[in-house]
């Protein structure tokens, strides 16, 4: 077991798909001073080449787990070396680099578990290229849950105006109704409430819950899931957890000011019920958080944007926010 450094923290960052904008936005985010050591698990040549392509200074210093953590200066990152099998061309996916992507994520996750790192921040991954190379991968959330043996985790995205969590994540729309059960909802809402208390200082979370069907099922005339699953799950939870649960409310009207201003989070039943609203209210200014893992994990709110890679035009705001929120979460959780 590696001793946790009490003075400065180390955050591990994965840059995700090497031909995407992940490396660019990490290098851009490193141009400012951070109160923690940022350790990037990546190929050093990928980062140095990309820094040159986007015309930014970058100095890499070797990461040593036994050295005392110290904050990186602007333009500097610590590097936990992983080698790419093939040189990356910005914007060009290469199935031969898939294992590299998975290995960086696995190594970073292990480092969080064993106490080397205080949090994991991830850059965007391209799900299709991994699957094309026969790696079943539907998202970081599912992958990290699986390798850390977590039965339930919760995806929550947050920006200055809104927090949205999801009852189901990356599954086909056809599978959504059968994946929402009383147990899955009870587990999801319990993790959500615990996460808000532990990391965000919300002592009595107010959680607004969407219905699944149009008009929340219209008293059972447009779908039965509200009556058979969502309402009974909320009734069980109301007796057992210390938080306020409001719903199910129609998803088409739940995102209005009078609810949002009181809600600590809105729970959507599926990906595209909640995330379009969240991203409309602040795409590029939001952070993706996984609750329920044995460590803090944050990420960007956007994808690989292959067409912007290596050009210097990708915006780093969401990556900066992901690092900032990880630091805030670890400060709160250790209070
Ligand atoms: N955190 C993640 O790992 C993550 C998140 C979302 C999507 N993805 C994956 O990324 C891949 C591409 O997805 P997509 O095309 O739907 O979404 P995308 O976010 O990559 O791109 C959508 C649009 O937003 C723009 N954009 C995205 N990030 C930007 C940034 N930082 N600065 C400026 N403009 C930006 C793009 O140019 C494009 O017009 C998919 O494989 C998807 O699954 C990964
Ligand atoms: N659902 C996320 C989004 O739309 O931003 C994204 O696909 C990333 O999810 P993971 O963190 O599970 O990779």
From TrEMBL:
<dbReference type="GO" id="GO:0005737">
    <property type="term" value="C:cytoplasm"/>
</dbReference>
<feature type="binding site">
    <location>
        <position position="141"/>
    </location>
    <ligand>
        <name>substrate</name>
    </ligand>
</feature>
<feature type="binding site">
    <location>
        <position position="170"/>
    </location>
    <ligand>
        <name>a divalent metal cation</name>
    </ligand>
</feature>
<feature type="binding site">
    <location>
        <position position="288"/>
    </location>
    <ligand>
        <name>substrate</name>
    </ligand>
</feature>
<dbReference type="GO" id="GO:0051287">
    <property type="term" value="F:NAD binding"/>
</dbReference>
<comment type="similarity">
    <text>Belongs to the PdxA family.</text>
</comment>
<dbReference type="GO" id="GO:0008270">
    <property type="term" value="F:zinc ion binding"/>
</dbReference>
<comment type="subunit">
    <text>Homodimer.</text>
</comment>
<keyword id="KW-0170">Cobalt</keyword>
<dbReference type="GO" id="GO:0008615">
    <property type="term" value="P:pyridoxine biosynthetic process"/>
</dbReference>
<keyword id="KW-0521">NADP</keyword>
<dbReference type="GO" id="GO:0000287">
    <property type="term" value="F:magnesium ion binding"/>
</dbReference>
<feature type="binding site">
    <location>
        <position position="271"/>
    </location>
    <ligand>
        <name>a divalent metal cation</name>
    </ligand>
</feature>
<dbReference type="Pfam" id="PF04166">
    <property type="entry name" value="PdxA"/>
</dbReference>
<comment type="pathway">
    <text>Cofactor biosynthesis; pyridoxine 5'-phosphate biosynthesis; pyridoxine 5'-phosphate from D-erythrose 4-phosphate: step 4/5.</text>
</comment>
<feature type="binding site">
    <location>
        <position position="279"/>
    </location>
    <ligand>
        <name>substrate</name>
    </ligand>
</feature>
<dbReference type="GO" id="GO:0042823">
    <property type="term" value="P:pyridoxal phosphate biosynthetic process"/>
</dbReference>
<keyword id="KW-0460">Magnesium</keyword>
<comment type="function">
    <text>Catalyzes the NAD(P)-dependent oxidation of 4-(phosphooxy)-L-threonine (HTP) into 2-amino-3-oxo-4-(phosphooxy)butyric acid which spontaneously decarboxylates to form 3-amino-2-oxopropyl phosphate (AHAP).</text>
</comment>
<keyword id="KW-0479">Metal-binding</keyword>
<feature type="binding site">
    <location>
        <position position="215"/>
    </location>
    <ligand>
        <name>a divalent metal cation</name>
    </ligand>
</feature>
<feature type="binding site">
    <location>
        <position position="140"/>
    </location>
    <ligand>
        <name>substrate</name>
    </ligand>
</feature>
<dbReference type="InterPro" id="IPR005255">
    <property type="entry name" value="PdxA_fam"/>
</dbReference>
<keyword id="KW-0963">Cytoplasm</keyword>
<keyword id="KW-0664">Pyridoxine biosynthesis</keyword>
<dbReference type="GO" id="GO:0050897">
    <property type="term" value="F:cobalt ion binding"/>
</dbReference>
<protein>
    <recommendedName>
        <fullName>4-hydroxythreonine-4-phosphate dehydrogenase</fullName>
        <ecNumber>1.1.1.262</ecNumber>
    </recommendedName>
</protein>
<keyword id="KW-0862">Zinc</keyword>
<keyword id="KW-0560">Oxidoreductase</keyword>
<dbReference type="GO" id="GO:0050570">
    <property type="term" value="F:4-hydroxythreonine-4-phosphate dehydrogenase activity"/>
</dbReference>
<keyword id="KW-0520">NAD</keyword>
<dbReference type="InterPro" id="IPR037510">
    <property type="entry name" value="PdxA"/>
</dbReference>
<feature type="binding site">
    <location>
        <position position="297"/>
    </location>
    <ligand>
        <name>substrate</name>
    </ligand>
</feature>
């Amino acid at each position: 077991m590696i001793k946790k450094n009490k003075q400065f923290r180390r955050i591990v960052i994965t840059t995700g798909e090497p031909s995407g904008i992940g490396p660019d936005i990490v290098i851009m985010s490193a141009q400012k001073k951070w109160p923690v050591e940022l350790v990037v698990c990546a190929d050093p040549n990928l980062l140095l080449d990309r820094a040159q392509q986007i015309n930014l200074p970058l100095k890499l210093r070797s990461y040593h787990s036994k050295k005392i953590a110290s904050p990186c200066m602007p333009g500097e990152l610590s590097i936990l070396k992983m080698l790419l099998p093939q040189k990356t061309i910005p914007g060009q996916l290469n199935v031969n680099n898939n294992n590299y992507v998975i290995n960086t994520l696995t190594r970073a996750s292990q480092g969080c578990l064993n106490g080397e790192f205080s949090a994991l921040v991830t850059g965007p991954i391209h799900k299709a290229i991994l699957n094309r190379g026969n790696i079943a991968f539907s998202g970081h959330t599912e992958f990290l849950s699986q390798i850390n043996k977590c039965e339930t985790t919760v995806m929550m995205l947050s920006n200055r105006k809104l927090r949205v969590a999801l009852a189901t994540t990356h599954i086909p729309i056809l599978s959504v109704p059968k994946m929402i059960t009383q147990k899955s909802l009870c587990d999801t809402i319990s993790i959500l409430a615990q996460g808000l208390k532990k990391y965000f200082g919300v002592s009595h979370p107010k959680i607004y819950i969407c219905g699944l069907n149009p008009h929340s099922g219209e008293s059972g005339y447009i779908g039965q899931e509200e009556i058979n699953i969502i309402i009974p799950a909320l009734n069980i939870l109301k007796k057992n957890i210390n938080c306020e649960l409001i719903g199910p409310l129609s998803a088409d009207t739940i995102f209005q000011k009078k609810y949002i201003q009181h809600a600590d989070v809105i729970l959507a039943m599926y990906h595209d019920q909640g995330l379009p609203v969240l991203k409309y209210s602040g795409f590029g200014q939001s952070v993706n958080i996984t609750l329920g893992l044995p460590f803090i994990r944050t990420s960007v709110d956007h994808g690989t944007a292959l067409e912007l890679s290596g050009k210097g035009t990708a915006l780093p705001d969401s990556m900066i926010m992901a690092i900032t929120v990880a630091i805030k979460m670890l400060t709160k959780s250790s209070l």
